[in-house]
Amino acid sequence: MENIITIHAEPRKEISKRASKGLRAAGKIPAVIYGITAESVPIAVSLADIKGILKSENKDNSILRITQGEKAKFDAMIKEIQYDYLSDHIIHVDFIRIDLNKPVDVEVPVLLEGEPVGVKTEDGLLEFIHREVLVRSLPTSIPKEIRIDISGLHLNQSIKVENLARNEAYQFISPANTVICAVAAKAKEEVAAAPEAAEAEVAAEGAAPAAEAAKGPAKEGEAAAKGAAKDAAKGAAKEADKGAGKAK
Q1: β-pair type (28-34, 41-46)
Q2: Which residues of the chain form beta strands (DSSP E)?
Q3: 105-186 has which CATH code?
Q4: Which CATH architecture is the domain 4-98 placed in?
Q5: Which of 117-121, 176-180, 241-245 is the least confident region?
Q6: Domain layout of the chain by residue ranges
Q7: CB-based burial, 91-107: b 16+ in 10 Å, e otherwise
Q8: In this predicted structure, which of 34-43, 85-94, 160-169 has the lowest mean pLDDT?
């Protein structure tokens, strides 16, 4: 990567929410240039310039030459972009000074190529776990992306940072055991258990009405028995009364 994007910056004399709101209304974005040894410099840049950078080949890893007036210029990169939390509008940008002759650490996107055999013929599921890796290189050698051929990946296999091809232009800083992607087995057991649970639930629901239905006849039989006992007692009492009358 050797292209350098030049953007123009204006000094910010007033640092306040009101001033920042005025800049945004004018199509500009409040920003700050940070440096390791030099003091931070508050500036304002064009929103159109920032959007152009994010649409460029290297996006937020682009090398920038920020000019301020006729004399001042800074080689820099985007450190952070702040967005409005209610929308995707850019509200602030932080830049970091760089030396084109000294390495920098940046996150580089990972691009997967091909269809894993573990997905194609072994009924596996591709999991894309880390979509960026941290690399260290000179600003002019930062790769646009890291391409990985995953067509030979089988079921239960993974690709880690330690498996990535090495390049003289940069080195990987992400831990070697960081998993980039993997082909995992589908959760068949969970899928099979679901119908069994549903059947058990249906059986339990069906058992409740049956139990209630069984209680009905039992209650009716109990009431009939109590009624018969009462009738028998009444009959015995009547017979006793008759016997007493005859005795008199």
Answers
A1: antiparallel
A2: 4-11, 28-34, 41-46, 63-68, 72-83, 90-97, 104-113, 124-128, 132-137, 146-149, 158-160, 170-172, 179-185
A3: 2.170.120.20
A4: Beta Barrel (2.40)
A5: 241-245
A6: 4-98, 105-186
A7: bebebbbbeeeebbebe
A8: 34-43
Q: Which amino acid is at 73?
A: K
Handedness of CA 168, 169, 173, 174 (dihedral sign): negative
Contact assessment for residue 63 and residue 1, using Cβ atoms and an 8 Å cutoff: yes
pLDDT confidence bin for 26, thresholds 50/70/90 = very high
The rounded distance, in Å, linking the Cα atoms of 73 and 207 is: 82
Tokens of 233: 């007692």
Which amino acid, one-letter code, is at 230? K
Residue whose C-alpha is closest to residue 9's, from 89, 99, 52, 72: 72
pLDDT digits (tens, 9 = 90+) for 50-84: 999 999 999 999 999 999 887 788 899 999 999 99
Instruction: State the pTM of this model.
Output: 0.69
Relative to beta strand 170-172, strand 132-137 is: antiparallel
> What's phi and psi for 168, nearest 5 deg?
-65, -20
193: helix, coil or strand?
helix
CA dihedral (205, 206, 211, 217) in degrees, to 10, reads 140
